[in-house]
Amino acid sequence: MPSIVRAAPITNQVTKRLVVLGDSYSDPNYDTTNGLPSTPNWAEILVSRGRAVSMVNYARSGATALDYANAPAQSTFKKQLDLFLANPRYGDDDITVVYLGYNDIARSTDARWSNLIQSKADFRVGVDRLLTAGAARDKRRLLIVAVHDWSKKPNSRAEYLPRTREWLTFTYDFVNKRRATHKGMICVNVFRRFNDVVLRPQLYGLNNVRTADPARAATTALYYNTSHFGAKGQTILANEFSSAFDLVCRTR
């Protein structure tokens, strides 16, 4: 079942409900299931700030855009969508976020992910299911995330850079094409933001953006472990999404 978070009613909310589909970067149970200190992710931070009245979160650590046989529950985009679209009950101003791609980029040594062709195809199908369900219609908005550079994480491999570039090119092209008929679809450029974080870390209060540093991941280090941001990085993510929510307000 998805994780559901509710906040106290507010008077200046951007949306009544935030719907999240994604992987460990958005999974509210990532820290507890991995024995890590409790660290709110970007989506939980937005709810705590009052940017949404409630959230329904289907994200699962390890989830991929590519669908495959015998995948664990919620571990593919399709499985998350099947749960949500069984009874979406879209509100009049819901925001849906699709934040996937990291695990498809990383699994380059698995034959199913030797290239990204099927991952991209399954991602297209999934987003089109959301569009058909009305995710970007009227005052609702569908946010598609351009992932940050996976080749810059602490345990990067050489193939991550071209695979990240391929995924980003696909993401930008796909969003641009769909926006021709679905103006309520928006790209959240996490890639651009975290390129700036790496180039100008001091501007964000950071002095380590290259290596895992769990002791300082809530203050001056970007990565908690070899693949994941700590509290500081998740806050920067939340700020980027908050800016996207501001754009939503201006386009409704």
Overview in brief:
This protein is of the alpha/beta class.
List keywords for this structure.
252 residues, alpha/beta, 6-stranded mixed β-sheet, two-stranded parallel ribbon
Notes on the structure:
The chain is α/β, with parallel strands linked by helices and 252 residues long. The chain contains eight helices and eight strands, in the order ββααβαβααβαβαββα. The chain has helices at 30-33, 42-48, 77-85, 102-106, 117-133, 160-179, 190-199, 231-251; strands at 3-6, 15-22, 52-57, 95-99, 141-146, 185-189, 208-212, 221-223. α6 links the parallel β5 and β6. α2 crosses α8 and α3 runs parallel beside α5 (117-133). The protein is globular and about 45 Å long. The model is unreliable at 7-11 (pLDDT under 50).
> Largest sheet, order of strands side by side?
1-3-2-4-5-6
User: Order of helices and strands, N to C?
Assistant: EEHHEHEHHEHEHEEH
Count every beta strand, where a strand is a DSSP E run of 2 or more residues. Answer: 8
Separation, N- and C-terminal Cα atoms? 31 Å
What proportion strand? 15-25%
Unreliable residue runs: 7-11
How are the SSEs ordered, and which strands pair?
Blueprint lengths: L2 E4 L8 E8 L7 H4 L8 H7 L3 E6 L19 H9 L9 E5 L2 H5 L10 H17 L7 E6 L13 H20 L5 E5 H10 L8 E5 L8 E3 L7 H21 L1
Parallel strand pairs: 2-3, 2-4, 4-5, 5-6, 7-8
Antiparallel strand pairs: 1-3
